[in-house]
Amino acid sequence: MPLTDMSLAQLRAFSPTVREPADFDDFWRETLAEARTAADLAGEKARATRTPADTPITELIVEDLTFPGFNAEPVKAWAIRPKGREGEKLPVVVEFNGYNGGRGIVGERALWALAGYAYVFMDTRGQGSGWGTGGDTSDPHGSNAAVSGWMTRGILDPKQHFYRRVFTDAARLIDEVRTWDFIDPTRIAVTGGSQGGGIAIAAAGLSPDVWALMPDVAFLCAWEHGTDVAVSDPYQELARYLAVHREHTETVWNTAAYFDGVNFAKRITVPALFSVALMDDVVPPSTTFAGFNALASADKAIEVYAYNGHEGGQTYQWLKQAEFLAARR
Hints:
This protein has helices at residues 8-12, 24-42, 111-114, 162-177, 195-206, 223-229, 235-244, 249-256, 261-265, 285-294, 315-326, and strands at 49-52, 60-68, 74-82, 90-96, 118-122, 183-193, 212-216, 272-277, 300-305. It is of the alpha/beta class and 329 residues long. It has one domain (8-326): Rossmann fold (3-Layer(aba) Sandwich). Helix 2 (24-42) packs across helix 4 (162-177) and helix 6 packs across helix 7 (235-244). It is globular. InterPro entries: AB_hydrolase_fold, AXE1_dom, CE7. Pfam families: AXE1. Residues 1-326 form the Acetyl xylan esterase domain. It comes from Gryllotalpicola daejeonensis.
């Protein structure tokens, strides 16, 4: 597979023009306020719960988490932590999943807990049937006419877009994790690969006091540029939509700007470790670099996997992340 984008030198300097709505901050402030108010009004019906998971795993504490996300709607997650650490305040890693993956079967992801962290893996509403072992969270909202997938669901109105709900779920999960008595609320890191990396960037932008941001082969940055250069889905969902709905071009890009990782990155100042793969034919490397280069963080680094595709660094990158967090504990 050849390099799919610019040279590395060009990528390191790449800073595309990304639309930024004048009311970007107000839009998200109001969105999160509405979600928190909805949970307050719902009372006990929206209360988060953690119950012991049905699993043969005996050496970790594994819990099935349900928490109130967008509109106080129930969102599922796994919460896993090491045993024998009672009385300690554990650092936490919150992870978000890739496109059309779900939280899967309990215990599939345990490395962070085995490394001494509390670990939370969020289900993505409406997804979970494209690969992996399934998801458990519905998305009870409709959409305008849309291309198969999630990029164009609600694309004519930012208040109706799919990622407004998902990004709100992510921020509300961080709200919930902060309340747990066994975690250190000053050490909540966010991570994820592909779509999960894009959600992590949004979560860090919406929860500015997180400890660290660690997205891998991050999707959802520089949407308009990504659609121009990507050769495959999910960005091509937008191209197919606009090939039919020619009259909606400006509306589409104005809506997309509310969910563009570049606009969140401009507001992020926490330590950040990104990764990118130069042979990635799903998420063009220039889109990931657009998000990384826009970061306001003084403490930031990006690992480059020159000969990998969308799989990125995999466990090699996890080891880099573990070292990154250990140096900042």
